[in-house]
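Could someone model (2R)-2,3-dihydroxypropanoic acid with this protein?
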Amino acid sequence: MTDKKVLIEQAKNILKRNDVDGYTVPTHDLYPFQWNWDAAITALGWMKVDESRAWLEIEMLLKGQWENGMVPHIIFHKPVDTYFPGPDVWGVKNDIPTTAISQPPVLVSVVKMMSEQATDKGLAESKLAEMLPKLIAYHQWWYNDRDPENTGLVVSYHPWESGMDNSPAWDESLAAVPPVNYTYKRKDLDHVDSDERPHAEQYDRYLYLVDFFKNSNFDSEVIYKNCPYKVYDLGIISILHKATKDLIYLCKQSNTNEQEVTWFNEQLALTEKGINTLWSNEHNSFLNKDVITQKLSPVLTTGTMLVIYAELASAEQMNALKPLLNEWLNETKYCMSSTYAKCEAFEPQRYWRGPVWLHINWMIALGADSYGLSEESAKLKSDSEELLTKFGYFEYFNSETGVGCGGDDFSWTAAIALHWFL
Ligand code: DGY
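Reply:
Sure, complex below.
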């Protein structure tokens, strides 16, 4: 077998090994349930193995959807004791226990790609018809629940919701959250080196927020008013924007939901305006913002570059972003470091403070393509391929050495490799 064939077989086997009765764990032990954006990305990989299994991944994720439309960040389909905090800590009493926050909503964009790629068009059409009302409800929830004042920018309540848990962009906002005053046992450190994971001070505050949601009875209005952590996260805002465009496309294609399409177009227009409030002339870039203090975070993270994935940058903004993107891609041995290496907070191996994530490279490459930046897009792809080939199917990669970090045999790394370059 050629090297490429071996890599393809390995990727397929990872998905099969991580399959638990119809949903895929990101990796066993460290993340033993179904995660929201992991599931979406993983479904793209399943499309190369078994299309009906790919649709099932999305169906299983939607089983955890709340009545108000929210699709949670973790669905605890069945009990496993290798992860903390589990369903008892979150305290959500639905038939299938879940967390009380969501995650970057790449889901609809993936469903659109799946329906385009499907060789079994009949299956794709029937799955899409079943799912569309749920996907619409999910996006309605984002705008209604998280942007009740129609700013065009949805607010995020937890670093875990960003998917970029310990990004330095959240440091200041998280430091303002009180720590919990009880002891608890983290389980992530049983599986991964502590220098690749968030610090204890961050976990103390992650848990405070989990308790806050529970003590607020998961009431949207109470949480919006009182949550001690509220940020405009460029990653979520951009991924949502792109996915809403894809949702409109899916609605139009099925000739349904005209009213919803009009309403979603209004939301897109609001975001196209609102995003400019996150532009900094000083940094020549978009920046994340603390909604409580109204301060922009000066740290450049890949979230800031996801704006190009959503095609939210104007021509003028792109003139400033292009040189930054180029420097960033070449600043570390492997691109694209999750934190720009010139920022003080950069750490090449610690989770979201500097390593490379292949699904983020993929999204930014799509954005680069849409602005005609083919060299930048090619560099993102070739570095991703090199990391995978040299170091294996890790959760993420040290941006200076390339060494694989976090969980091994990781589903979204296998899926992106199958979907993007293998
Ligand atoms: C974790 O537990 O580290 C996860 O990233 C939360 O989603």
